[in-house]
Design brief:
- By secondary structure, the protein is α+β, with helices and mostly antiparallel strands.
- Helix content is 29%, strand content 25%.
- A seven-stranded antiparallel sheet has the order 1-2-3-5-4-6-7, with helices on both faces.
- The longest helix has 12 residues.
- The chain is globular, with a radius of gyration of 15 Å.
- It starts with 6 loop residues before the first helix and ends with a strand.
Length: 138
Amino acid sequence: MTTFPRLAGFLLLAGLVAGCSAASGAGHVAAGARPAAAPMTVEQLSAKVGCTPRMQVNAAELRTGYCATPDGEFFVTTFASQRGKDAWMDAAPEYNPHLVGPLWTVLSSRKVLDLLKERLGGDLHLTDHRTKQMRVVG
């Protein structure tokens, strides 16, 4: 099996984000507001592209699964809160490009992400998040 050359760094980053506090108010619903649909899981996102993920990180704040399909290899990460997703996005500039949706991201090559975007939706992020000059292809 071929793995991403930066897997160790990715798993370290995942561990750091997993250590973030979950106290973000993500579970709060304003009076009269309809609760949002439950975010998709690693397994649900992976199934949409024909993969059973091999779990790499299974923490309270984030979960990451590795997939290999005819489209290519990729990592699917889901987050328990927007705060955790934001922390990951801020700390992950070297992992470009990535596909980003509500409380999830997919990391792979641009070619693979272009194929996955057709089935998963989301926005393709192509540049370093810390520069605030992010180019989003939608």
